[in-house]
Design a protein that fits this description.
This protein is of the alpha/beta class. Helix content is about 45%, strand content about 15%. GO terms for molecular function: DNA-binding transcription factor activity; transcription cis-regulatory region binding.
Length: about 350
């Protein structure tokens, strides 16, 4: 058995005085590299007797074939729109998309990423909210770091604090602040929030935005004003049922997602309340259904397909640094007829 130490691609890059990404591309021959840089890398590899990692080569060879998209729930119009945008970009590059659903389960998300690595997808786009969970963050980083070292690319939608990935970041906090301020301008002073699970970063950021705006206007949003359900229509319905059971006197119900707002409006109607005559309801995202509801939903509009497109573009562009690029996407408050000035005290 030889005593020669194992030579890594990092050793080759260091000797050739090029970046790790350039060394990988030169060795694998899958992306155009300047002739002088290629020669330096190949010379360094020969000098060090570098043997390419078989998996990394296979991964690079797959780079013109498959990419992975991980979402929480493809039946949710939010994720359907993001995925459609990502798939449109992949199609322009002649790539096949492998779609994985997690149902907002952190363990399933890790399993999906592991499976995409095993399938040698050349890029992975995470479209779902991250989890406010340190152990999950460490486990996901442990999955993605060796994948990136082998030539894989990663991009994420929404805040993923510890992954150092290229990020498309909708302005969740800022959009929520703008919505709360808009409802205050309409004359509302009593608010409740129908919210999803607090461990999702998207939920945490939107609730924080509501709180910050209202606090700046002299209105405290306490835990008694928050009603949590699953991050879907049924969760919105159940959380609103809890709000009604608590006899909350809100004139405006802020929800953290349009799908939850749909459930909230249904629960209010079942209780004999009119939207917006008895209570105003707002959403977030502007899914296509939002404008077709009766009444149409006031919401924070995000360009959902664009979010998916930009995430896939970042994932396919190898020009990012190790710390990751961030593209921030603002939202816009769209006032529709699910909200109005408070007209009378809501019935108990």
């Amino acid at each position: 058995m030889s005593d020669r130490p194992h030579v890594t691609l990092e050793d080759v890059a260091r000797t050739a005085e090029v970046s790790l990404a350039t060394a990988s591309r030169a060795i694998n021959g899958t992306t155009r590299v300047r002739d002088d840089l290629r020669e330096r890398v190949l010379s360094a590899a020969a000098e060090l007797a570098y043997t390419p990692n078989a998996h990394a080569q296979a991964l690079a060879g797959a780079s013109r074939r498959t990419v992975g998209v991980v979402c929480h729930d493809i039946s949710d119009p939010y994720f359907a729109a993001l995925t459609r945008g990502a798939m449109r970009v992949a199609d322009r590059h002649g790539l096949v998309v492998m779609l994985a659903g997690t149902f907002a389960d952190p363990d399933k998300e890790l399993a999906c990423v592991s499976a995409l690595r095993a399938q040698r997808a050349s890029a992975i786009v995470l479209t779902g909210s991250a989890f406010e969970n340190r152990s999950w963050e460490r486990a996901m980083a442990a999955e993605l770091e060796p994948y990136r070292r082998g030539g894989g690319r990663v991009a994420v939608v929404t805040r993923h604090r510890s992954l150092r990935a290229d990020t498309v970041s909708p302005e969740n906090r800022g959009g929520a602040r703008a919505m709360a301020e808009a409802m205050h301008r309409l004359g509302h002073r009593r608010f409740a929030v129908v919210t999803g699970p607090a461990h999702l970063t998207t939920v945490a950021d939107r609730v924080a935005g509501f709180r910050e705006a209202l606090a700046g206007l002299g209105i405290e949003l306490s835990e008694r004003d928050l009603f949590e359900g699953s991050f879907d229509r049924d969760g919105g319905r159940e959380a609103t049922a809890a709000l009604l059971a608590a006899k909350h006197k809100a004139t405006c119900v802020l929800t953290v997602a349009d799908v939850m707002a749909v459930g909230a409006i249904g629960a209010l109607r079942e209780a004999g309340l009119s939207v917006p005559d008895d209570v105003s309801v707002t959403g977030f995202d502007d899914i296509p259904l939002a404008r077709d509801l009766t009444p149409p939903l006031t919401t924070v509009a995000l360009p959902l397909e664009r979010l998916g497109e930009e995430a896939m573009e970042l994932a396919l562009d190898a020009g990012g640094g190790s710390r990751g690029r961030v593209r921030r996407i603002p939202g816009e408050v769209l006032l529709r007829s699910s909200t109005a000035k408070p007209r009378r005290r809501r019935r108990s």
